[in-house]
Amino acid sequence: MQSFLSIVWDVNPIIVKLGPVALRYYSLLFIAGLPLGYYLMERFYKREGVDTALLEPLLYIALLGTIVGARLGHCLFYEPQYYLSHPVEILKVWEGGLASHGGAIALIICIFYYASKYGKPNGFDALWVFDRFVICVCFAGMFIRLGNLFNSEIFGGPTSLPWGFKFLRSYEWVNTYGPAVYPPDGVACHPTQIYEALSYLILGLFLLWVYNKKLDKIYRGWIFGVFFIVLFGMRFIIEFIKNDQVAFEQGMTLNMGQLLSIPFILVGVLILIYSYRKKQPAYVVAKPAAEKEKKTLDKTQRMSRAKRKASGLE
């Protein structure tokens, strides 16, 4: 019965290989979040009158921050002894090992930098950017978790549910749950990659609906706070059925993923409290370029007149 109901997952993670270069589903899905995120942010910027030319630096900053932060997060949170002893290995991103918590921390720092450089002259601040950017992050996270599925990695423990997966291309599954351990066919495991992908998708659709329909009824920071609470709250729950990613997690009451999720949930609560206390409107319309130019010209004219008066010309 177990063998009949389970799903046998035997998908090659490599789409095509040309010599030493291989195109993987994970890479394709990781990149897939970029055009979708750009499209959504472009819609947000246009709706609120912000110059879309400012999206290009945001794209570069976010992409670089995500990769560097996620890689450093994995190396320092999960295997610090190994990577601090072999620092060159940190650069080998293609060998795998990215942590979403590290990527989140890096993104926060990058967006604060972006807002400090481009926000004030264009009528927005960091919270305004976060409220919109995290909607894109939800969909990007969904794609990344589907990439984990194609890599047959980061799955859960045994299950008798009909949607349990047997990951035939995973060394972890073969050596822990495969036929040699549980004859004759091995046991199916929770596809936690799909659980997380679905939770990210649902959260992203909900926040997008709030932005489109309720933006005038919420305060700035509300979307950002809810994002932190729900996303990392779901991550905290799903971690209970995940397998340990590294050896030192064995025997821990809460694994590293859960311990790292707690601060983000608490920060989400603080952001909501701050949002309700400040009561700053979420919807901000940037000043039109013509108005900015007019103010600039008026200021210039006033300065010229003052100089003329000082010179006794007026």
Helix and strand arrangement:
Elements: H1 2-5, E1 7-9, E2 14-18, E3 21-24, H2 25-47, H3 55-77, H4 80-85, H5 100-122, H6 126-150, E4 165-167, H7 171-177, H8 192-214, H9 222-238, H10 256-278, H11 289-310
Parallel strand pairs: 1-4
Antiparallel strand pairs: 2-3
Helix pairs in contact: 2-6, 3-5, 6-8, 6-9, 8-9, 9-10
Oligomer: single chain
**What can be said about the biggest beta sheet?**
2 strands, parallel
Backbone structural class: mainly alpha
Number of domains: 1
- The spatial strand order of the largest sheet comes to 1-4
**Helix segment tally:** 11
Average pLDDT figure? 85
Can you walk through the features of this model?
- This protein has one domain (2-283).
- The protein has a two-stranded parallel ribbon. Strands 2-3 form a two-stranded antiparallel ribbon.
- The chain has helices spanning 2-5, 25-47, 55-77, 80-85, 100-122, 126-150, 171-177, 192-214, 222-238, 256-278, 289-310; strands at 7-9, 14-18, 21-24, 165-167.
- It is 62% helix and 5% strand.
- It is mainly α and 314 residues long.
- The chain contains eleven helices and four strands; from the N terminus they run αβββαααααβααααα.
- α2 runs antiparallel to α6 (126-150), α8 (192-214) runs antiparallel to α9 and α9 (222-238) packs antiparallel against α10 (256-278).
- Mean pLDDT is 85; it is low at 289-300.
- It starts with a helix and ends with a helix.
